[in-house]
Design brief:
It is built from 34 helices and 17 strands. The protein is of the alpha/beta class. Helix 3 runs parallel beside helix 10.
């Protein structure tokens, strides 16, 4: 790490997470002054005024420029999505147990005044209304949660960055203006298309002007700069920005800077997260190769530029309501960069830039970008070894996605072969084709499998709220055999699966009508050709997943009931329900709990007894969601279907906090199992057994992500022979078992415990939370404890 990068890194790590009001001011002013205009025009004018008037700065030493807010790591506010939580929590931002934010007292009054304009006009309030009474009640009980969808934009997307670099911003403006004809509009479709094109013209022009502001700023700073080297750097920044404000980049430096600018402005436009950079090593490689061949750039400078970009990604910040924050502990933005994989002919796409991106991320050990590697059977041993060496650094990256299952399954869905080979990870581990996929390839509603399962055992009555949304088939004490349990589960899960999709539909409608993202739509095919935003059906493909939480708990609970209640009859149904209700209170309760834990098979140990029970139960949910289509159906995109997803971020912690005791022996209110990983401490027969259990899931129907976290100690992975063992395990999991995904935490329990008690000494400790990494000391204690409890595997 150069002195420059070390300084920039330290500066952003030391910055307090403040709240910035600038965006909220501009958006509120524009909406107040233009209430007679269509929402697309208001959105375009608002982003234009924001980019024109917001504070900009260039940090001393910056080579890559662009800021999201008025201060480093300050978070803008997005009142058009939701304000209730701001009013309620404004005095508590700095008192949170994790993910704290700070705001000046004088700015509190202004923020509250801005919020007053938006009361009753937000996507949250309108979305709740569209849900209807029953869905509102279900959402309120937390059986299904869509907090993040209602209080922010969708995102979970990557734009067509390769095309932007090819034709430049003026190329897009030229396309937009071809559609702005002078003829009369005589249909609803034509009128809406004109609004979109006019809004797009305003918004893209604003991005060009924003980039030129940095050119002028750099030029001014260069005049006053006395250090000759820095003066030249500022002149170069000014020249880069002047060119890419309108024209396609010529150099690697310019291409990387334009990519970052777009990543930045799209997050100023929308409060959505998981906006990702896609296959950075592929679309930047031609620029890198050309510069290297003509001697225009050194590897050392490329690495420094990349490292500066990673610092800039970390400087982007987001404040969420506390209810949503608990589902995204550690403040992640999930800005994914994907490297490796195959080209359109199925050949290995790893190139020299892939190595430099991997190396630079490994050196920085930050939480951004969220680095993913696309594995395929012909990936080289050397590249895998370099990946494992970066994993050894202990910050949870890179994660691996498997081409051997994703590419063929995408083709089956109707994705073209060329596009299927060009997929990238989006956000955590979910996947989509950059620049051709609509919003939310995953991350829609969260469904709490264990709340649904407990309702199934209780005649459809939710034990927490006492409400019966779906009439049951009886109580566990009424059932004669395990088939009755499965029948009860099937009825409840099919009901709630449909309810989740209905909630999604309400959110989709309100975002389409009230918060269309004009800029993002411009850079996604085929929005310009169709004259539609992404929410209206502008994208080429539209496949979506919600997130299912508590997978392992469901399997373990089913196994415990089947074996101990109906086969061995060592626990009666009456006993089990009594002790679940009492949270296993007393010595008798603890004896029952230990029997549930120790005498029944556990998912994650390659035991078909439990693994296949889970598979069959999960298939009811997956079968049900296949019946439905998104709100874009018959409006343009290919697909418009739903599939499963387990990339549940940190939702297992708050989801567990609303679940009473469960038949797997889990006590009330503690976390559920994370992703598709086994319950903490129950996977006791090694990583190969975990892989075998995961492989029995219907992964072809869970293209929203089959998230598997594994934990190894630093001592285990240090010897070269163990690195090679890990590579062999990966190849077996991905080639033979068609595993979907895996990622690693390389940290021991003792270090985590020390970091809890001495946070000031472990500020830089990064851990893998779920499909993302976070600074351990910023996490709330319950999330920290969940990570500490995970099984440490041996090789």
């Amino acid at each position: 790490m150069t002195a420059r990068i070390r300084t920039l890194r330290e500066r952003v790590l030391s910055a307090r997470s403040m709240i910035c009001l600038e965006r909220a001011r501009y958006y509120t002013e524009v909406y107040r002054a233009n209430e007679d205009k269509q929402v697309a025009i208001k959105r375009a004018l608002a982003i234009s005024e924001t980019l024109k008037g917001m504070s900009i700065f260039i940090e001393p030493g910056d080579l890559i420029v662009g800021n999201q807010a008025s201060k480093l790591r300050a978070a803008p506010t997005f009142p058009e999505y939701a304000v209730e939580w701001i009013v309620k929590e404004i005095d508590e931002f700095d008192k949170r147990p994790g993910d704290k934010f700070f705001i000046e007292e004088t700015e509190k009054r202004e923020l509250l005044e801005l919020c007053s304009y938006w009361q009753g006009k937000t996507t949250l309030s309108r979305g709740r209304y569209l849900m209807g009474e029953t869905l509102r009640e279900i959402h309120k009980t937390a059986i299904i949660k869509a907090e993040g969808n209602l209080t922010s934009g969708d995102a979970h997307i990557a734009i067509n960055m390769g095309r932007v670099l090819k034709i430049g911003l003026d190329g897009y403006l030229g396309e937009i203006r071809k559609h702005l004809h002078g003829d009369f509009d005589t249909s609803l479709e034509q009128i809406k298309q004109r609004q979109f094109y006019e809004a797009a013209d305003i918004a893209v022009s604003a991005v060009s002007a924003f980039i030129l502001r940095f050119s002028h700023l750099a030029q001014g700073l260069s005049i006053a700069e006395v250090d000759g080297r820095r003066k030249n750097e500022l002149v170069q920044i000014a020249d880069n920005c002047e060119r890419i404000a309108h024209k396609p980049p010529k150099t690697f430096y310019q291409a990387l800077q334009l990519s970052y600018f777009l990543q930045l402005v799209l997050q100023i436009e929308s409060n959505g997260h998981s906006l990702s950079l896609g296959r950075l090593d592929q679309y930047l490689y031609p620029f890198y190769q050309r510069d290297r061949e003509n001697g225009g750039i050194s590897e050392e400078f490329v690495i420094e530029l990349l490292e500066n970009t990673w610092v800039k990604l970390l400087s982007i910040n987001k404040i969420r309501p506390w209810a949503h924050t608990r589902y995204s502990a550690g403040g992640p933005l999930y800005q994914n960069v994907t490297i490796g994989g195959t080209d359109s002919d199925g050949n290995d796409a790893v190139n020299p830039l892939s190595y430099l991106i991997l190396q630079s991320v490994g050196k920085m050990k930050l939480t951004q970008p969220n680095l993913s590697v696309r594995y395929h059977k012909n990936i080289s041993e050397d590249f895998l070894l370099q990946c494992v060496k970066v994993i050894e650094e202990g910050f949870g990256m890179p994660a691996f996605n498997n081409d051997e299952i994703v590419v063929p399954e995408f083709k089956k869905l109707g994705v073209s072969p060329e596009d299927a080979h060009n997929y990238s990870a989006i956000g955590c581990i979910e996947v989509a084709v950059p620049g051709k996929w609509g919003y939310r390839c995953t991350g829609k509603h969260f469904i709490n499998f264990m709340r649904v399962f407990l309702a199934a055992l209780n005649n459809g009555v939710d034990p927490v709220s006492g409400k019966q949304f779906c009439e049951g088939t009886g109580n566990l004490t009424d059932f004669d055999n395990y088939r009755d349990v499965l029948r009860a589960w099937e009825k409840q899960i099919r009901y709630y699966a449909k309810a989740g999709i209905a909630i999604d539909a309400a959110v989709d409608v309100v975002l389409e009508e009230n918060a269309p993202d004009i800029l993002c739509s411009v850079f996604v095919d085929d929005c310009l050709q169709r004259g539609k935003t992404i929410h209206e059906g502008g994208a080429v493909y539209d496949f979506v997943s919600g997130l299912q939480v508590g997978i392992a708990n469901l399997g373990n609970s089913l196994a415990a009931i089947k074996k101990l209640v109906f086969e061995e009859k060592s626990i009666s149904a009456e006993e089990l329900m009594q002790h679940l209700e009492s949270n296993f209170d007393g010595s008798d309760g603890e004896k029952i709990r230990q029997k549930l834990i120790n005498a029944a098979p556990k998912y994650g140990n390659d035991e078909e007894y439990v693994d296949l029970l889970l598979r069959d139960a999960y298939l009811y949910y997956l079968d049900e969601i296949e019946k439905y289509r998104t709100t874009r159906h018959n409006r343009g995109p290919i697909g418009c279907k739903y599939y499963g997803g387990t990339s549940s971020i940190s939702a297992n912690v708050p989801s567990g906090a609303v679940v009473p005791a469960t038949p797997d022996g889990r006590k009330a209110w503690v976390p559920l199992a994370e992703g598709s990983s086994p319950s903490s401490g129950t996977d006791v027969t090694g990583p190969t057994a975990v892989f075998n259990s995961i492989a029995k899931l219907p992964t072809d129907k869970i293209l929203g992500g089959v998230l598997l976290n594994q934990k190894l100690t630093p001592d285990i992975i240090r010897p070269i022979e163990n690195k090679q063992k890990l590579i062999a395990l990966l190849r077996g999991f991905f080639n033979d078992l068609k595993g979907w995904h895996v990622q690693y935490n390389i940290v021991d329990r003792e270090t985590l415990l020390k970091a809890q008690s001495e946070p000031e000494n472990y500020r830089d400790l990064v851990v893998r939370v779920a499909g993302y990494s976070a600074f351990f000391t910023t996490l709330s204690p319950d999330t920290q404890n969940d990570i500490i409890a995970r099984t440490e595997q041996q090789l």
